[in-house]
Design goal:
The protein is of the alpha/beta class. The protein has 13 helices and eleven strands. A six-stranded mixed beta sheet has the order 2-1-3-10-4-11, sandwiched between helices. Strands 7-6-8-5-9 form a five-stranded mixed beta sheet.
């Protein structure tokens, strides 16, 4: 996996599109707005805005948003413009909120970003930055599966038909030379589509033999006695692939670039702070998770999950393109036109101010 190949620049009818839109992670409420923000005395509003509405998932793969909110990085950069938040548990609801104007900027996985862009004929969103890489593993019952070849003939869970991890698993299965019907999940391996929240219970009950899932579900399975058989990062160049991006409404980007730049600056600052303060950052993320979901992660789940996530300002554009190719090859997506999905101008400006190099859009940047 994965030598990236150029995407055809024609947008076909997305017959299977609804199958790909759910993100590969899902914890937290549907959309919980948040108040009580502290704004520094003498601060000024950015672009004349009263607020900027930020969406994210209550999940460790959205660590930048969790920590940035908990530690006040976003509010600091936005000044007297209030940072408001909405927590989502699935990609489609966040894309819908972006399209309706309920949120302006969001942290989201690659599949819903691809679908949101393709369904709107490239008119609703732009990817403006990266956030996280990795954090996806194949965890199995060590009594039933002792090697990769033993996966054949077994029942393996993925979060949802056509989601990011489902596509990755189907691509891996094909690379082993095995056959699976993508729609039914039947074949040399049985693919069981199971919500991340119920997969650990299904594993414990023995109804699945393993799962290709994101964190913290992977670590929950390990806590139930599972064994990590494969880390998806090892299948990608430099062990990096996008799991979380930052998206923005095209209209909001056009009308309020200073506000967008402020959020990106806060994101870069947050990632820098997390790298410099890993233990404090982990605690802050878990505190925010508890606020968002009503329950903090136990140490035996949080610690390994946190270690497997690699924060990055780089959106890793080439890997998003490859993920779209894999969905096409699996028969779950008509070839989309992703030309223009990225606008990394403001991110490059923020990085340059910090003495960091610009990042690449893999030829998919807006003109």
């Amino acid at each position: 996996m994965p030598a990236t190949k150029p995407l055809r620049r024609t947008l076909a009818a997305l017959a299977a599109l609804p199958l790909l839109v759910l993100a590969g992670c899902g914890y937290g409420s549907q959309a919980k707005d948040d108040g009580g923000v502290e704004i520094a005395a003498g601060a000024e509003r950015i672009d004349g805005l009263d607020s900027v509405r930020i969406g994210y998932f209550g999940n460790v793969t959205h660590a930048t948003a969790l920590v940035g909110k908990q530690k006040g990085f976003f509010q600091k950069e936005l000044g007297a413009t209030e940072a408001k938040y909405a927590v989502f548990n699935a990609g489609p609801s966040e894309i819908e909120a972006l399209n309706s104007g309920s949120i302006d900027i969001g942290w989201i996985g690659p599949s819903p970003a691809i679908n949101g862009y393709a369904k709107s004929d490239g008119k609703n969103l732009r990817i403006i930055g990266g956030s996280a890489s990795g954090g996806v593993k194949l965890v199995v019952n060590p009594e039933k599966i002792k090697s990769l070849k033993d996966v054949k003939g077994k029942r393996i869970a993925t979060p949802q038909l056509g989601n990011t991890q489902d596509v990755a698993f189907l691509n891996w299965v094909a690379e082993q030379g095995w056959k699976v019907d993508a729609q039914s999940g039947k074949g040399d391996v049985t693919v069981v589509r199971s919500d991340n929240k119920v997969t650990p219970g299904a594993y414990k009950a023995g109804s699945v033999d393993g799962a290709w899932v994101p964190e913290p579900t992977a670590s929950r399975l390990v806590a139930e006695g599972g064994k990590v058989l494969l880390n998806e990062s090892t299948l990608w160049p430099d062990d990096k692939f996008v799991i979380t991006n930052i998206i923005v409404s095209q209209e909001f980007l056009k009308e309020h670039p200073k506000a967008v730049e402020a959020v990106l600056r806060a994101s870069v600052d947050t990632n820098e702070w997390i790298r410099a303060n890993p233990d404090e950052a982990k605690a802050a993320a878990n505190e925010q998770l508890e606020e968002d979901t009503g329950k903090a992660l136990p140490a035996d789940v949080l610690d390994p999950a946190w270690k497997s996530i690699r924060l990055t300002d780089d959106p890793l554009a080439a890997t998003l393109e490859a993920q779209a190719d894999h969905a096409v090859e699996a028969g779950l997506l008509e070839q989309p036109d992703l030309n223009g999905i990225y606008d990394l101008t403001l991110l490059s400006k923020v990085l340059k101010a910090k003495g960091e190099p610009a990042v690449d859009d893999a030829g998919l940047g807006a003109q």
